[in-house]
Amino acid sequence: MALSYLEKEDENEIITQDAMLKEVDIGSATKVFALELLFQADNGFLYYLDCSIGTIVASIPTYMGRLGVMCQNPSNGVICTGHNDGVVSMWVPSEKSYVIKMFAHPTAITSIACDQTGSYLATCGVDRKLKIWDLRSTYDPLSEILLPMSASTINFSQKGLLALGAANTVQILRDPHSIPPSNASKIFETISPNVNRRVISNAYLSHYAVHPVYRVRFCPYEDVLGVGSSAGISSILCPGSAEPNYDGLEENPFANKRYRQEREVKRLLDKIPYTMISLKSIVGEVRREDLLEEWEKKKAVLLGQVPKVDTPAIKRNKQKGRSKPGRIEAKKQNIHFERKMFTIKEVLGVREAEEKLRRKVSYKKINDISTLPRPSEALVTKKKLSKRRTNTALDVLIPPKEF
Question: Do 167 and 100 fall within a single domain?
Answer without folding.
Answer: yes
